[in-house]
Amino acid sequence: MAREIDEAWIDEAIGRYRRVEGLRAEFDTAVAAHQVTVHSPDQSIEVVVTASGEIVDVRVHGGLRQRDAVEFSRELKAVVTSAGEAARWAREKLHAEVFGSLHSLDDP
């Protein structure tokens, strides 16, 4: 038995695919452009990270000469960890904003 081809369903599937591809491009652009700033627990180090996880800037407030190396390392590790978490949070938020209205193929 030959299957009938539902041209309307195929056209709709192609349209949905194109829409998903457009949303994916929008998401990729937003992830690369969106930046989050985090600070170390003692506020002495500031890191700017994109939602993709790329660290784009690091600023140290105050002098380094009087800083204990172990304490500075601890603060640096904490702020880099926070930057990773902030990037992940920003990605999830952007994903929900971009793809939140997308319906499955089964939805009317």
From TrEMBL:
This is YbaB/EbfC DNA-binding family protein. InterPro entries: YbaB-like_sf. It comes from Actinoplanes awajinensis subsp. mycoplanecinus.
